[in-house]
Automatic annotation (TrEMBL):
Domain (HTH hxlR-type): residue spans on this chain: 24-117
Top-level taxon of the source organism: Archaea
Molecular functions (GO terms): DNA binding
A Pfam family this chain is assigned to: HxlR
Highest classification ranks of the organism: Archaea, Methanobacteriati, Methanobacteriota, Stenosarchaea group, Halobacteria
Native organism: Halorubrum trueperi
Protein name, entry field: Winged helix-turn-helix transcriptional regulator
Length: 117
């Protein structure tokens, strides 16, 4: 049986878009949470709210890296920052509802890693 060639360039583009429609959400998700440090911080915050220095110790990130990652995660509404201005001044970070929705994904990735890495 012969394969029918597309009749126009738009037919080809349409077919490609249709085939890749399911991939778009995966790609978009990875772009939002896909850096090593973002994943490490999000995974660490699964245990609950933590202060900046607690996150620094538990993740091993430098102050600069951690600060940059926390700002990015906050901009993406995956975490929230609560500040206490009493002495000593402290910043606390915890996952938002959007961030917490990633917990089952971490569980599945952990299982996959145990099987394949």
């Amino acid at each position: 049986m012969a394969t029918q060639l597309p009749t126009s360039k738009s037919d080809t583009e349409s077919d490609i878009e249709q085939r890749n429609a399911d991939v778009c959400n995966v790609v978009g998700s990875i772009e939002e949470i896909g850096s090593k440090w973002k994943l490490i911080v999000l995974n660490d915050l699964r245990d609950g709210e933590k202060r900046f220095n607690e996150l620094k110790r538990s993740t091993g990130a430098s102050s600069y890296t951690l600060s940059r990652v926390l700002d990015d995660l906050e901009d993406e509404a995956l975490i929230e920052n609560r500040k206490e201005f009493e002495s000593p001044v402290a910043s606390y970070y915890k996952m938002t509802e959007k961030g917490s929705a990633l917990c089952p994904v971490f569980d599945v990735l952990d299982e996959w890693g145990e099987d394949w890495l």
